[in-house]
Amino acid sequence: AKNHFTLGRSDYQRQYEAMLYGWKSGNKREWHGGRNQSDLWFYDKPTHNTLHPTMKPVELMERAIVNSSRPGDIVLDPFSGSGSTLIACERTGRICRTIE
């Protein structure tokens, strides 16, 4: 959840962003996180960031990466922006491929 609205034209303004993850065709889906986790995660984020307008907290990306991959796995982020996923992969021993 965010402490401010996300961009959109809905009647009710969202204060969250959906996160999607997948796996390579032919591979089995794997889950490495605990089963007691909610789908709503709270992380501190500045209300304004001068480096990148949609910067994600590295800790948030680390949690998603650790839950859904193993050390040495390849993580693809096609919207890498400020590089939070790249930093999270470095910290958790994953290989990161990014596109912006």
Automatic annotation (TrEMBL):
Molecular functions per Gene Ontology: DNA binding; N-methyltransferase activity
Regions that span the bilayer: none
Keyword Methyltransferase: yes
Domain of life: Eukaryota
GO biological process, one term: methylation
Residues of the DNA methylase N-4/N-6 domain: 19-95
UniProt keyword list: Methyltransferase, S-adenosyl-L-methionine, Transferase
One Pfam family linked to the record: N6_N4_Mtase
Stated name of the protein: Modification methylase BglII
Organism annotation: Culex pipiens (House mosquito)
Species classification: Eukaryota, Metazoa, Ecdysozoa, Arthropoda, Hexapoda
